[in-house]
Amino acid sequence: QVQLEESGGGLVQPGGSLSLSCAASGTIFNINAMGWYRQAPGKQRELAADITKDGIPNYADSVKGRFTISRDNAKNTVYLKMNSLKPEDTAVYYCYADLQVGTVEVANWGQGTQVTVSS
Question: Which is nearest to 20 in space by CA: 4, 31, 32?
Answer without folding.
Answer: 4
